[in-house]
Amino acid sequence: MDALVAQLQMQYRNYTVSLYQQGFLDERFTELRQLQDDKHPNFAAEMLSLSFDDSVKHIGNITRACKDQTGTVDFGLVDVSVHQLKCTSSSVGAKRVKDLCVTFKEYCEANNYEGCVRCLQQVDIEYNTLKTKLQDMFNLEKQIIQAGGKVPQVDGH
Amino acid sequence: MARDGGVTCLRSSEMLNVGLGGMESPPLDLDEVHVLAVDDSLVDRIVIERLLRITSCKVTAVDSGWRALEFLGLDNEKASAELDRLKVDMIITDYCMPGMTGYELLKKIKESSSFRQVPVVIMSSENVLTRIDMCLEEGAEDFLLKPVKLADVKRLRNHLTGDVKLSNGNKRKLPEDSVTVHALLPPPPALTLSTDSSDSSPPLSPVEVFSSPLSSLIDDEDDDDVLTSSPTPEESPVRRQKMRSPGLD
Protein backbone atom coordinates (compact mmCIF):
# COMPACT_ATOMS: atom_id res chain seq x y z
CA MET A 1 0.00 0.00 0.00
CA ASP A 2 2.77 2.39 0.95
CA ALA A 3 4.70 1.59 -2.20
CA LEU A 4 1.64 2.33 -4.29
CA VAL A 5 1.03 5.59 -2.46
CA ALA A 6 4.65 6.60 -2.88
CA GLN A 7 4.53 5.80 -6.57
CA LEU A 8 1.32 7.73 -7.08
CA GLN A 9 2.66 10.66 -5.15
CA MET A 10 5.78 10.75 -7.28
CA GLN A 11 3.70 10.54 -10.43
CA TYR A 12 1.53 13.36 -9.16
CA ARG A 13 4.48 15.52 -8.27
CA ASN A 14 6.11 15.04 -11.63
CA TYR A 15 2.90 15.67 -13.48
CA THR A 16 2.02 18.81 -11.56
CA VAL A 17 5.53 20.22 -11.87
CA SER A 18 5.38 19.64 -15.61
CA LEU A 19 2.16 21.61 -15.82
CA TYR A 20 3.89 24.56 -14.25
CA GLN A 21 6.98 24.13 -16.37
CA GLN A 22 5.00 23.98 -19.57
CA GLY A 23 3.23 27.14 -18.56
CA PHE A 24 -0.21 25.68 -18.10
CA LEU A 25 -0.34 26.86 -14.52
CA ASP A 26 1.30 29.67 -12.66
CA GLU A 27 1.75 30.76 -9.05
CA ARG A 28 -1.83 31.95 -8.84
CA PHE A 29 -2.91 28.31 -8.85
CA THR A 30 -0.47 27.65 -6.04
CA GLU A 31 -1.99 30.53 -4.09
CA LEU A 32 -5.47 29.09 -4.50
CA ARG A 33 -4.20 25.76 -3.23
CA GLN A 34 -2.83 27.49 -0.20
CA LEU A 35 -6.28 28.84 0.63
CA GLN A 36 -7.50 25.30 1.15
CA ASP A 37 -8.12 23.88 4.58
CA ASP A 38 -10.25 21.17 6.15
CA LYS A 39 -13.43 23.16 5.62
CA HIS A 40 -12.52 24.06 2.06
CA PRO A 41 -10.51 21.10 0.81
CA ASN A 42 -11.35 21.62 -2.87
CA PHE A 43 -11.21 25.36 -3.17
CA ALA A 44 -8.74 25.47 -6.05
CA ALA A 45 -10.65 22.85 -8.05
CA GLU A 46 -13.90 24.68 -7.41
CA MET A 47 -12.46 27.98 -8.63
CA LEU A 48 -11.02 26.27 -11.71
CA SER A 49 -14.38 24.74 -12.43
CA LEU A 50 -16.17 28.08 -12.13
CA SER A 51 -13.56 29.75 -14.25
CA PHE A 52 -14.01 27.13 -16.93
CA ASP A 53 -17.76 27.75 -16.95
CA ASP A 54 -17.00 31.45 -17.42
CA SER A 55 -14.47 30.67 -20.13
CA VAL A 56 -16.95 28.62 -22.13
CA LYS A 57 -19.34 31.54 -22.01
CA HIS A 58 -16.73 34.07 -23.11
CA ILE A 59 -15.38 31.87 -25.90
CA GLY A 60 -18.97 31.44 -27.08
CA ASN A 61 -19.48 35.19 -27.12
CA ILE A 62 -16.24 35.76 -29.01
CA THR A 63 -17.16 33.08 -31.53
CA ARG A 64 -20.55 34.64 -32.14
CA ALA A 65 -19.06 38.11 -32.46
CA CYS A 66 -16.56 36.84 -35.01
CA LYS A 67 -19.19 35.08 -37.07
CA ASP A 68 -21.38 38.10 -37.50
CA GLN A 69 -23.96 37.55 -40.24
CA THR A 70 -23.63 41.00 -41.65
CA GLY A 71 -19.95 40.40 -42.36
CA THR A 72 -18.69 43.05 -40.01
CA VAL A 73 -16.98 42.18 -36.78
CA ASP A 74 -17.57 44.29 -33.70
CA PHE A 75 -14.01 44.30 -32.43
CA GLY A 76 -15.11 46.23 -29.40
CA LEU A 77 -17.42 43.41 -28.43
CA VAL A 78 -14.71 40.83 -29.04
CA ASP A 79 -12.34 42.88 -26.93
CA VAL A 80 -14.71 42.94 -23.98
CA SER A 81 -15.10 39.17 -24.01
CA VAL A 82 -11.38 38.60 -24.49
CA HIS A 83 -10.73 40.86 -21.51
CA GLN A 84 -13.16 38.88 -19.40
CA LEU A 85 -11.59 35.62 -20.53
CA LYS A 86 -8.18 36.97 -19.65
CA CYS A 87 -9.36 38.04 -16.20
CA THR A 88 -10.99 34.77 -15.32
CA SER A 89 -7.93 32.84 -16.48
CA SER A 90 -5.63 35.10 -14.53
CA SER A 91 -7.75 34.66 -11.43
CA VAL A 92 -7.11 30.93 -11.31
CA GLY A 93 -3.61 30.63 -12.73
CA ALA A 94 -4.51 29.44 -16.23
CA LYS A 95 -1.36 30.98 -17.61
CA ARG A 96 -1.37 29.91 -21.23
CA VAL A 97 -4.94 31.00 -21.81
CA LYS A 98 -4.23 34.29 -20.09
CA ASP A 99 -1.11 34.95 -22.17
CA LEU A 100 -2.98 34.10 -25.35
CA CYS A 101 -5.63 36.65 -24.42
CA VAL A 102 -2.98 39.35 -24.28
CA THR A 103 -2.08 38.63 -27.90
CA PHE A 104 -5.74 38.35 -28.77
CA LYS A 105 -6.43 41.81 -27.36
CA GLU A 106 -3.70 43.26 -29.52
CA TYR A 107 -5.31 41.83 -32.63
CA CYS A 108 -8.66 43.24 -31.53
CA GLU A 109 -7.20 46.66 -31.04
CA ALA A 110 -5.63 46.45 -34.47
CA ASN A 111 -8.96 45.31 -35.94
CA ASN A 112 -7.10 42.32 -37.36
CA TYR A 113 -9.77 39.78 -38.28
CA GLU A 114 -7.45 36.94 -39.32
CA GLY A 115 -5.41 37.39 -36.19
CA CYS A 116 -8.55 37.25 -34.08
CA VAL A 117 -9.79 34.10 -35.76
CA ARG A 118 -6.41 32.42 -35.24
CA CYS A 119 -6.39 33.44 -31.58
CA LEU A 120 -9.89 32.17 -31.10
CA GLN A 121 -8.90 28.76 -32.46
CA GLN A 122 -5.84 28.68 -30.23
CA VAL A 123 -7.75 29.78 -27.16
CA ASP A 124 -10.22 27.00 -27.68
CA ILE A 125 -7.42 24.45 -27.96
CA GLU A 126 -5.59 25.78 -24.92
CA TYR A 127 -8.70 25.86 -22.81
CA ASN A 128 -9.58 22.28 -23.68
CA THR A 129 -6.02 21.09 -23.20
CA LEU A 130 -5.81 22.68 -19.77
CA LYS A 131 -9.13 21.21 -18.77
CA THR A 132 -7.98 17.72 -19.74
CA LYS A 133 -4.65 18.04 -17.99
CA LEU A 134 -6.24 19.29 -14.80
CA GLN A 135 -8.71 16.44 -14.95
CA ASP A 136 -5.74 14.07 -15.05
CA MET A 137 -4.09 15.87 -12.17
CA PHE A 138 -7.19 15.73 -10.01
CA ASN A 139 -7.61 12.08 -10.93
CA LEU A 140 -4.17 11.36 -9.54
CA GLU A 141 -5.13 13.17 -6.34
CA LYS A 142 -8.16 10.98 -6.01
CA GLN A 143 -6.10 7.85 -6.54
CA ILE A 144 -3.63 8.91 -3.88
CA ILE A 145 -6.40 9.53 -1.38
CA GLN A 146 -8.09 6.26 -2.24
CA ALA A 147 -4.79 4.46 -1.70
CA GLY A 148 -4.70 5.96 1.77
CA GLY A 149 -2.11 8.62 1.12
CA LYS A 150 -1.96 12.38 1.30
CA VAL A 151 -1.72 14.63 -1.70
CA PRO A 152 1.71 16.28 -1.62
CA GLN A 153 1.97 20.03 -1.82
CA VAL A 154 3.54 20.96 -5.11
CA ASP A 155 4.36 24.54 -5.93
CA GLY A 156 5.81 24.07 -9.36
CA HIS A 157 9.49 24.28 -8.51
CA MET B 1 -23.90 33.12 0.23
CA ALA B 2 -25.85 33.07 -2.98
CA ARG B 3 -23.94 32.36 -6.14
CA ASP B 4 -26.06 34.62 -8.21
CA GLY B 5 -24.62 37.83 -6.94
CA GLY B 6 -27.21 38.18 -4.25
CA VAL B 7 -26.32 39.68 -1.00
CA THR B 8 -25.20 38.02 2.14
CA CYS B 9 -25.17 40.59 4.81
CA LEU B 10 -24.92 41.22 8.44
CA ARG B 11 -27.16 44.11 9.19
CA SER B 12 -25.74 45.48 12.36
CA SER B 13 -28.16 48.32 12.76
CA GLU B 14 -29.14 47.11 16.16
CA MET B 15 -25.60 46.62 17.19
CA LEU B 16 -24.42 49.98 18.09
CA ASN B 17 -24.40 53.64 18.05
CA VAL B 18 -22.51 54.19 21.17
CA GLY B 19 -23.17 57.60 22.58
CA LEU B 20 -20.66 60.09 23.75
CA GLY B 21 -20.40 59.34 27.41
CA GLY B 22 -23.36 58.55 29.59
CA MET B 23 -24.29 54.96 30.06
CA GLU B 24 -21.83 52.13 30.50
CA SER B 25 -22.09 49.78 27.61
CA PRO B 26 -20.18 46.69 26.60
CA PRO B 27 -17.13 47.55 24.50
CA LEU B 28 -17.35 47.33 20.73
CA ASP B 29 -15.89 44.22 19.23
CA LEU B 30 -13.13 46.02 17.42
CA ASP B 31 -12.19 42.93 15.49
CA GLU B 32 -15.59 42.67 13.87
CA VAL B 33 -14.55 44.20 10.60
CA HIS B 34 -17.27 44.22 7.97
CA VAL B 35 -16.18 44.51 4.38
CA LEU B 36 -18.35 45.12 1.35
CA ALA B 37 -16.79 43.47 -1.70
CA VAL B 38 -17.91 44.43 -5.19
CA ASP B 39 -16.96 42.43 -8.29
CA ASP B 40 -18.89 41.31 -11.35
CA SER B 41 -16.78 38.16 -11.69
CA LEU B 42 -18.13 35.26 -9.67
CA VAL B 43 -14.72 33.64 -9.31
CA ASP B 44 -13.14 36.84 -8.07
CA ARG B 45 -16.02 37.47 -5.72
CA ILE B 46 -15.65 34.07 -4.13
CA VAL B 47 -11.90 34.37 -3.89
CA ILE B 48 -11.95 37.82 -2.32
CA GLU B 49 -14.56 36.64 0.13
CA ARG B 50 -12.35 33.69 1.04
CA LEU B 51 -9.36 35.95 1.50
CA LEU B 52 -11.34 38.34 3.68
CA ARG B 53 -12.82 35.57 5.80
CA ILE B 54 -9.39 34.09 6.35
CA THR B 55 -8.38 37.46 7.77
CA SER B 56 -11.41 37.39 10.11
CA CYS B 57 -13.60 39.85 8.29
CA LYS B 58 -17.31 39.61 7.89
CA VAL B 59 -18.07 39.92 4.21
CA THR B 60 -20.93 41.07 2.06
CA ALA B 61 -20.22 40.43 -1.60
CA VAL B 62 -22.25 41.96 -4.42
CA ASP B 63 -21.91 41.77 -8.16
CA SER B 64 -22.28 45.40 -9.23
CA GLY B 65 -21.88 49.01 -8.21
CA TRP B 66 -25.67 49.38 -8.23
CA ARG B 67 -26.09 46.52 -5.81
CA ALA B 68 -23.44 48.07 -3.62
CA LEU B 69 -25.28 51.39 -3.53
CA GLU B 70 -28.51 49.58 -2.87
CA PHE B 71 -26.92 47.75 0.02
CA LEU B 72 -25.55 50.97 1.43
CA GLY B 73 -28.90 52.67 1.05
CA LEU B 74 -27.43 55.20 -1.34
CA ASP B 75 -29.51 54.24 -4.33
CA ASN B 76 -32.24 56.78 -3.72
CA GLU B 77 -32.29 60.43 -2.89
CA LYS B 78 -33.69 60.29 0.60
CA ALA B 79 -31.19 59.90 3.36
CA SER B 80 -31.30 56.57 5.10
CA ALA B 81 -32.44 56.72 8.70
CA GLU B 82 -29.58 56.82 11.18
CA LEU B 83 -31.04 53.88 13.07
CA ASP B 84 -30.66 51.78 9.99
CA ARG B 85 -27.03 52.66 9.42
CA LEU B 86 -24.87 49.81 8.39
CA LYS B 87 -21.54 49.07 9.88
CA VAL B 88 -19.23 48.93 6.91
CA ASP B 89 -15.55 49.24 7.69
CA MET B 90 -14.16 48.93 4.21
CA ILE B 91 -15.34 48.68 0.65
CA ILE B 92 -13.24 46.80 -1.86
CA THR B 93 -14.29 47.02 -5.46
CA ASP B 94 -13.19 45.90 -8.89
CA TYR B 95 -12.45 48.73 -11.27
CA CYS B 96 -13.66 47.23 -14.54
CA MET B 97 -17.34 46.43 -14.19
CA PRO B 98 -20.18 46.79 -16.68
CA GLY B 99 -22.69 49.52 -15.92
CA MET B 100 -20.93 51.32 -13.12
CA THR B 101 -17.16 51.16 -12.84
CA GLY B 102 -15.37 50.92 -9.53
CA TYR B 103 -14.25 54.49 -10.02
CA GLU B 104 -17.83 55.69 -10.39
CA LEU B 105 -18.80 53.75 -7.31
CA LEU B 106 -15.90 55.31 -5.43
CA LYS B 107 -17.10 58.77 -6.39
CA LYS B 108 -20.63 58.07 -5.22
CA ILE B 109 -19.39 56.74 -1.91
CA LYS B 110 -17.16 59.74 -1.36
CA GLU B 111 -20.08 62.04 -2.17
CA SER B 112 -22.25 60.48 0.50
CA SER B 113 -22.23 61.85 4.00
CA SER B 114 -22.81 58.46 5.59
CA PHE B 115 -20.01 56.57 3.96
CA ARG B 116 -17.39 59.02 2.74
CA GLN B 117 -15.15 58.08 5.66
CA VAL B 118 -15.21 54.41 4.80
CA PRO B 119 -11.94 53.39 3.13
CA VAL B 120 -12.45 52.26 -0.45
CA VAL B 121 -9.94 49.97 -2.10
CA ILE B 122 -9.87 49.53 -5.86
CA MET B 123 -8.79 46.28 -7.53
CA SER B 124 -7.74 46.12 -11.15
CA SER B 125 -6.08 43.68 -13.49
CA GLU B 126 -4.40 46.54 -15.33
CA ASN B 127 -1.48 48.43 -13.92
CA VAL B 128 -2.32 51.75 -15.51
CA LEU B 129 -0.76 54.69 -13.71
CA THR B 130 -3.32 57.22 -14.86
CA ARG B 131 -6.06 54.97 -13.57
CA ILE B 132 -4.31 54.52 -10.25
CA ASP B 133 -3.75 58.26 -9.88
CA MET B 134 -7.33 59.00 -10.77
CA CYS B 135 -8.62 56.65 -8.10
CA LEU B 136 -6.25 57.85 -5.44
CA GLU B 137 -7.15 61.45 -6.17
CA GLU B 138 -10.79 60.63 -5.84
CA GLY B 139 -10.05 59.34 -2.36
CA ALA B 140 -9.33 55.65 -2.78
CA GLU B 141 -7.46 54.23 0.14
CA ASP B 142 -5.45 51.80 -1.89
CA PHE B 143 -5.15 50.24 -5.30
CA LEU B 144 -4.50 46.52 -5.64
CA LEU B 145 -3.42 44.65 -8.73
CA LYS B 146 -5.40 41.56 -9.54
CA PRO B 147 -5.19 38.73 -8.86
CA VAL B 148 -5.34 39.87 -5.26
CA LYS B 149 -3.18 37.91 -2.86
CA LEU B 150 -3.71 36.94 0.74
CA ALA B 151 -0.76 39.14 1.69
CA ASP B 152 -2.53 42.17 0.19
CA VAL B 153 -5.69 41.49 2.16
CA LYS B 154 -3.77 40.87 5.36
CA ARG B 155 -2.04 44.19 4.93
CA LEU B 156 -5.36 45.95 4.41
CA ARG B 157 -6.80 44.24 7.44
CA ASN B 158 -3.90 45.25 9.64
CA HIS B 159 -4.17 48.78 8.39
CA LEU B 160 -7.86 48.84 9.26
CA THR B 161 -7.38 47.45 12.73
CA GLY B 162 -4.65 49.96 13.33
CA ASP B 163 -6.92 52.83 12.33
CA VAL B 164 -9.76 51.59 14.48
CA LYS B 165 -7.53 51.30 17.51
CA LEU B 166 -5.86 54.63 16.98
CA SER B 167 -9.08 56.61 17.02
CA ASN B 168 -10.25 55.22 20.33
CA GLY B 169 -12.14 52.35 18.92
CA ASN B 170 -14.49 54.12 16.56
CA LYS B 171 -13.05 55.18 13.30
CA ARG B 172 -16.38 56.26 11.85
CA LYS B 173 -17.45 59.79 12.44
CA LEU B 174 -20.53 59.77 14.63
CA PRO B 175 -23.54 61.52 13.18
CA GLU B 176 -24.24 64.91 14.78
CA ASP B 177 -27.63 64.02 16.09
CA SER B 178 -26.77 60.67 17.56
CA VAL B 179 -26.27 61.61 21.18
CA THR B 180 -28.71 59.07 22.53
CA VAL B 181 -27.32 55.76 23.60
CA HIS B 182 -28.81 52.68 22.12
CA ALA B 183 -28.68 49.54 24.18
CA LEU B 184 -26.55 46.90 22.63
CA LEU B 185 -28.57 44.03 21.36
CA PRO B 186 -27.12 40.72 20.39
CA PRO B 187 -26.18 40.74 16.71
CA PRO B 188 -28.92 39.47 14.45
CA PRO B 189 -28.37 36.24 12.58
CA ALA B 190 -26.81 36.69 9.16
CA LEU B 191 -29.37 37.00 6.42
CA THR B 192 -28.73 34.83 3.44
CA LEU B 193 -30.51 34.24 0.22
CA SER B 194 -29.31 30.72 -0.27
CA THR B 195 -29.55 27.66 1.84
CA ASP B 196 -26.40 26.24 3.18
CA SER B 197 -26.26 22.72 1.91
CA SER B 198 -22.56 22.30 2.29
CA ASP B 199 -22.90 20.44 5.54
CA SER B 200 -25.59 18.06 4.46
CA SER B 201 -23.66 16.08 1.91
CA PRO B 202 -20.21 14.58 2.00
CA PRO B 203 -17.50 16.73 0.48
CA LEU B 204 -16.78 15.97 -3.14
CA SER B 205 -13.36 14.87 -4.21
CA PRO B 206 -11.62 17.35 -6.51
CA VAL B 207 -12.39 15.20 -9.56
CA GLU B 208 -16.09 15.06 -8.77
CA VAL B 209 -16.19 18.75 -8.09
CA PHE B 210 -14.34 19.40 -11.28
CA SER B 211 -16.56 17.43 -13.57
CA SER B 212 -19.97 17.95 -12.07
CA PRO B 213 -22.11 20.97 -11.39
CA LEU B 214 -21.29 22.60 -8.13
CA SER B 215 -23.98 22.43 -5.54
CA SER B 216 -22.89 24.89 -2.95
CA LEU B 217 -19.56 26.53 -2.68
CA ILE B 218 -19.88 28.92 0.13
CA ASP B 219 -20.59 28.12 3.69
CA ASP B 220 -21.91 30.77 5.93
CA GLU B 221 -19.67 30.06 8.86
CA ASP B 222 -17.03 32.43 9.91
CA ASP B 223 -13.63 31.27 8.97
CA ASP B 224 -11.76 31.21 12.16
CA ASP B 225 -9.42 28.61 10.84
CA VAL B 226 -5.84 29.55 10.65
CA LEU B 227 -4.22 28.05 7.63
CA THR B 228 -1.37 25.79 8.41
CA SER B 229 0.75 27.25 5.71
CA SER B 230 0.37 30.75 4.46
CA PRO B 231 2.14 32.08 1.43
CA THR B 232 5.23 34.16 1.90
CA PRO B 233 4.07 37.71 1.59
CA GLU B 234 5.90 39.10 -1.38
CA GLU B 235 5.61 42.80 -1.38
CA SER B 236 6.06 43.72 -4.98
CA PRO B 237 6.56 47.48 -5.04
CA VAL B 238 4.51 47.94 -8.18
CA ARG B 239 1.42 46.40 -6.68
CA ARG B 240 0.43 49.19 -4.44
CA GLN B 241 0.42 52.93 -4.33
CA LYS B 242 -0.21 54.72 -1.08
CA MET B 243 -2.57 57.60 -1.11
CA ARG B 244 -0.84 60.92 -1.57
CA SER B 245 2.56 59.38 -1.57
CA PRO B 246 2.75 57.61 -4.86
CA GLY B 247 6.25 56.41 -4.40
CA LEU B 248 7.08 52.80 -4.26
CA ASP B 249 7.11 51.07 -0.90
Short summary of the structure?
Chain B: It comes from Eruca vesicaria subsp. sativa. Chain A is an all-alpha fold and 157 residues long.
Extract low-pLDDT stretches of chain A. none
Q: How many structural units, i.e. domains of chain A?
A: 1
Count every helix of chain B, treating DSSP H or I runs of 4 or more residues as helices: 6
Strand content of chain A is under 5%
Give the class of chain B from helix and strand content and strand pairing: alpha/beta
Largest sheet of chain B: 5 strands, parallel
Fraction of helical residues of chain B: 25-40%
CATH architecture level-2 label of chain A: Up-down Bundle
Extract low-pLDDT stretches of chain B: 1-6, 8-28, 166-200, 218-249
How far from one another are the termini of chain A?
27 Å
Describe this structure in words.
Chain B: It is found in: Nucleus. Chain B: It comes from Eruca vesicaria subsp. sativa (Garden rocket). Chain B: Pfam families: Response_reg (PF00072). Chain B: This is Response regulatory domain-containing protein. The complex is a heterodimer of chains A (about 160) and B (about 250). Chain A has about 160 residues and is mostly helical. Chain A has one domain: Up-down Bundle (Four Helix Bundle (Hemerythrin (Met), subunit A)), CATH 1.20.120. Chain A has six helices and no strands. In chain A, helix 3 (about 45-65) packs antiparallel against helix 6. Chain A is elongated, with a radius of gyration of 18 Å. The model of chain A has no long low-confidence stretch (mean pLDDT about 95). In chain B, helix 2 packs parallel to helix 3 (about 100-110). In chain B, strands 2-1-3-4-5 form a five-stranded parallel beta sheet, sandwiched between helices. The model of chain B is unreliable at about 1-5, about 10-30, about 165-200 and about 220-249 (pLDDT under 50). Chain B is of the alpha/beta class. Chain B has helices at about 40-55, 65-70, 100-110, 130-135, 150-165, 205-210; strands spanning about 35-40, 55-60, 90-95, 120-125, 140-145. The chains are: A mainly alpha (about 160), B alpha/beta (about 250).
